[in-house]
């Protein structure tokens, strides 16, 4: 029933169908959906819906819902929460500015499409994101990616980020990952800063994989460096003051990049000099006889409990 010039949800569909295709029509509202007994797939892309429909009558069977290319500006949380069997939700190309973080579909939802929406903040899906494998947020106004967002997406396998305003990614080595994650940042331009260096380190260590050619990065002098030509050791970052201060971080991680231990007569000044020489060093400690150089993450430092003072590089 696609491309049939329909302006309302048809009421003459047999109630035993499993798939309803209403793509490319002019349906603007849905008063109610018939009580289909076995409906698994509802596709209503390319219509003029202005609100997320109430699908309570098919919530026990609906697994696939495509509402892309409509005019939906917001989603009532209850309407999404009731779709407890939903596996695939496509909302791309809608003027949405947020997605409700509800637990309803969290056990089943593995694909969420939010590309070309009005999102300007990376969604923190503390409930909805626990089983998502693929996340599309390309073509949005998002400009920053908080590291915390990926901790709420422990099963994320693929994320589409291109055509956003993102200029750097956090140290994704330190997310709580069960497997490697692929990132599509095709044709994006990042800043040649320490987060870009971490991204190179992460790909080398197989924690992160590029789904396409990696992004270029622009140095402080304006030179654009292609991904394949970028060398961690060749580029030096300038312009940020590197001051040190004492701290006791509650959570640190020593596996990406691997910690480096320098057996020297170590004072904080000596360890600081070693840390400054390594672009991947953001955190160091000393017990007076040697330094441990590493970066800040989300594991625990039980094995390093004899280090009382930790120093973080300000600006890194």
Structural features, described:
The protein has helices at 77-81, 147-151, 194-204, 268-277; strands at 19-21, 41-43, 64-66, 88-90, 111-113, 134-136, 158-160, 181-184, 189-191, 208-210, 216-218, 224-225, 244-247, 260-262, 283-286, 291-294, 310-313. Helix 1 (77-81) links the parallel strand 3 (64-66) and strand 4 (88-90). The radius of gyration is 24 Å and the shape is elongated. It is mainly β. The protein has a domain at 244-313: Hepatocyte Growth Factor (3-Layer(bba) Sandwich), CATH 3.50.4. Residues 235-259 and 297-305 have low confidence and may be disordered.
Protein traits:
316 residues, Leu-rich_rpt, ion transport, transport, mainly beta, membrane
Bin the helical content: under 10%
Can you count the helices? Answer: 4
- In the CATH hierarchy, what is the architecture of the domain at 244-313 at level 2? 3-Layer(bba) Sandwich
The coarse overall form would be: elongated
**Residue fraction in strands:** 15-25%
Ends: how far apart? Answer: 56 Å
Helix and strand composition category = mainly beta
Regarding CATH, which class of the domain at 244-313?
Answer: Alpha Beta
How many E strands? 17
Strand order of the largest sheet: 1-2-3-4-5-6-7-8-10
Low-confidence stretches: 235-259, 297-305
CATH fold description of the domain at 244-313: Hepatocyte Growth Factor
Mean pLDDT: 80
Order of helices and strands: EEEHEEEHEEEHEEEEEHEEE
The major sheet is characterized as: 9 strands, parallel
Report Rg: 24 Å
């Amino acid at each position: 029933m696609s491309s049939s010039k329909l302006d309302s949800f048809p009421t003459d569909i047999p109630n035993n169908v499993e798939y309803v295709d209403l793509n490319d029509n002019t349906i603007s509202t849905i008063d109610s959906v018939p009580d289909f007994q076995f409906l698994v797939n509802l596709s209503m892309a390319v219509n003029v819906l202005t609100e997320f429909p109430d699908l309570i009558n098919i919530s026990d069977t609906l697994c696939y819902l495509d509402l892309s290319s409509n005019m939906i500006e917001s989603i009532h949380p209850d309407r999404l929460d009731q779709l407890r069997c939903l596996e695939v939700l496509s909302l791309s190309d809608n003027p949405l500015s947020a997605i409700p973080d509800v637990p309803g579909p969290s056990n089943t939802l593995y694909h969420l499409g939010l590309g070309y929406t009005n999102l300007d903040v990376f969604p923190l899906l503390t409930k909805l994101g626990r089983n998502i494998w693929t996340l599309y947020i390309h073509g949005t106004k998002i400009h920053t990616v908080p590291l915390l967002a990926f901790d709420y997406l422990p099963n994320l396998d693929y994320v589409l980020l291109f055509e956003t305003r993102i200029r750097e990614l956090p140290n994704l080595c330190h997310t709580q990952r069960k497997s490697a994650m692929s990132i599509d940042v095709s044709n994006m331009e990042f800043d040649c800063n320490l987060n870009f260096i971490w991204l190179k380190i992460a790909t080398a260590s197989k924690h992160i994989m590029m789904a396409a050619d990696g992004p270029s990065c622009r140095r402080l002098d304006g030179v654009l460096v292609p991904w394949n030509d970028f060398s961690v050791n060749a580029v030096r970052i300038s312009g940020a003051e590197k001051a040190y201060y004492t701290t006791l971080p509650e959570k640190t991680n020593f596996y990406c990049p691997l910690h480096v231990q320098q057996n020297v007569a170590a004072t904080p000044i000596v360890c600081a000099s070693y840390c400054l020489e390594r672009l991947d060093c953001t955190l160091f400690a000393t017990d007076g006889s040697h330094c441990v150089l590493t970066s800040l993450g989300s594991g625990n430092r039980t094995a390093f409990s004899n280090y009382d003072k930790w120093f973080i590089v300000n600006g890194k």
